[in-house]
Task: inverse folding
């Protein structure tokens, strides 16, 4: 054998026992891992783990490819932070057999994050702009929960701007599973994840196709759940024995026998389920949009539209105690009859109060035991959806839902923004549904004030009740608008998307607390892309 050949073979053999080996722009890992992954592709050739006293950082644009049914076990600090343009991808080499929920073929084992010993300090796992696909927790494995990411125990855990696509589990949480934890889950997409299996003799069912939480707190906001499935409860999302903030999410075309969009079981929430859109979800049996089971909570300012179920097209309730404020039920259907097309209350023990809701067919659209609590100031009118743009279920200016919500809704602690990211409380009274009508004003006076050169005009100035901020956009973009005092201290902030053209707003609507600010000079600034303009205003308040 030639010397050069022997050297190459010895090198390959030694690298086979290495935990992390670099080959040009690629990396091969197995066993213990730590440090930094900054490669085009990280090939995972065996089970890997991050020790409690180590950290691992995965850099933007890295493609992590598992070469078989291997997983990452995390006891230390993990940061996988990509960017919108360069996300981090976790995938598998071969997907043959992915759909077989009984065996591990065609998938990788997911990421398991274990909580820290409180005596040794809090651990963290942060995922941002990551894409998780083709992970699986099958029947043949000891753990049947959590397909892609499994969080067990406390820690500073965050999942931000990530996508979970076609992950599987035999039981609960195919995309994301958390237990005895308190994660922050914001701005993610859960698409076509599957929890569960064909019925078995044990009658075990899958919960939470996209996400499942057990005995946990945490925050679940600004997420999209689309096309997920569970064989039991909660096609998109399900929680059991939790107190989680669930707000400003979209549940679209998910499916489960119970709670097609979302299912809540044995839980007591300290904050309302609010500002969510349940659209086109389906359930073979009960609750096309939402199912409440043995739980106590408030359901505030949600929109249920075009969902379908055997019974309770929009909402199903079984031994639950809930107050429903400012919710919109429209276009939901049930296989049994129109009587329970919007809401189905299974039992007379449930105490469900309806306040200031818009319910198609009125009280007659509530089936089962019917209204078991208060039914106050509810209406039955076509909501007149905008039917256009990124949020077609926003309200038209002539909608009967505008300014028709509970006038005391500020007591619920709702998020400051509606589902579209606009100000939730406007003009002194909240609207019905997940969206707040935006009373943008463009008049001849606005057009005259805009000379096409300045992005921001404010008139009249000094500021009065009719003072407007006129913003001219050459192209559609997200803007930030804020007001500060002479010392640079913020007195208000507004973030919104504006299409090309001229947009006029009352300054008092943009900054509703402006009338309580003492008189003097202040700065109003608008920022978009590389451009920022500032206007000096005079307040004449006492």
Result:
């Amino acid at each position: 054998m030639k010397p050069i050949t022997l050297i190459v073979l010895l090198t390959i053999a030694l690298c086979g026992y290495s935990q992390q080996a670099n080959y040009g722009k690629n990396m091969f890992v197995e066993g213990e891992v730590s440090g930094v992954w900054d490669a085009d592709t990280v090939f995972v050739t065996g089970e890997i783990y991050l020790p409690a006293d180590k950290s691992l950082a995965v850099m933007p644009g890295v493609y992590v490819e598992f070469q078989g049914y291997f997983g990452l076990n995390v006891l230390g600090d993990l940061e996988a932070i990509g960017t919108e343009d360069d996300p981090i991808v976790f995938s598998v080499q071969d997907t043959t057999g992915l759909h077989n929920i009984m065996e591990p073929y065609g998938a990788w084992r997911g990421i398991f994050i274990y909580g820290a010993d409180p005596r040794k300090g809090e651990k963290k796992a942060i995922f941002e702009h990551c894409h998780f696909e083709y992970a699986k927790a099958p029947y043949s494995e000891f753990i049947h929960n959590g397909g892609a990411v499994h969080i067990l125990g406390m820690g500073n855990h965050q999942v931000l701007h990530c996508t979970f696509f076609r992950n599987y589990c035999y039981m609960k949480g195919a995309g994301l599973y958390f237990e005895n934890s308190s994660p922050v889950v914001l701005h993610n997409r859960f698409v076509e994840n599957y929890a569960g299996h064909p019925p078995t003799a044990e009658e075990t069912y899958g919960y939470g196709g996209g996400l499942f939480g057990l005995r946990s707190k945490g925050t679940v906001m600004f997420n999209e759940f689309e096309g997920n499935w569970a064989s039991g409860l909660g096609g998109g999302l399900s929680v059991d024995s939790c107190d989680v903030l669930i707000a400003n999410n979209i549940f679209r075309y998910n499916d489960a026998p119970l709670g097609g969009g979302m299912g809540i079981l044995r839980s007591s929430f300290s904050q309302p389920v609010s500002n969510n859109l349940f659209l086109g979800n389906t359930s073979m049996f009960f609750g096309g949009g939402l199912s409440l089971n043995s739980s106590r909570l408030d359901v505030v300012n949600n929109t249920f539209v075009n969902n379908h179920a055997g019974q309770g097209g929009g909402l199903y309730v079984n031994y639950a105690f809930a107050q429903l404020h400012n919710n919109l039920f429209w276009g939901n259907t049930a296989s049994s009859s129109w009587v329970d097309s919007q809401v189905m209350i299974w039992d007379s023990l449930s105490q469900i109060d309806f306040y200031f809701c818009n319910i198609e067919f009125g009280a007659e659209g509530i089936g089962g035991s019917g209204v078991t609590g208060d039914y106050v100031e509810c209406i039955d009118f076509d909501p007149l959806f905008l039917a256009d743009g990124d949020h077609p279920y926003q309200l038209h200016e002539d909608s009967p839902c505008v300014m028709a919500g509970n006038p005391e809704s500020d007591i619920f602690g709702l998020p400051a923004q509606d589902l579209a990211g606009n100000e939730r409380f406007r003009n002194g009274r909240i609207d019905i549904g997940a969206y707040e009508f935006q009373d943008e004003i463009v008049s001849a006076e606005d057009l005259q004030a805009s000379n096409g050169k300045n992005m921001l005009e404010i008139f009249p100035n000094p500021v009065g009740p009719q003072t407007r901020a006129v913003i001219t956009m050459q192209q559609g973009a997200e803007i930030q608008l804020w007001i500060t005092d002479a010392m640079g201290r913020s007195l208000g902030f507004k973030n919104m998307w504006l299409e090309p053209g001229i947009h006029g707003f009352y300054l008092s609507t943009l900054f509703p607390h402006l009338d309580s600010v003492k008189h003097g000079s202040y700065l109003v600034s608008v920022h978009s892309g590389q451009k920022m303009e500032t206007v000096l205003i005079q307040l004449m308040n006492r």
Observations:
- DSSP finds three helices and 52 strands in the chain.
- The longest strand covers residues 41-50.
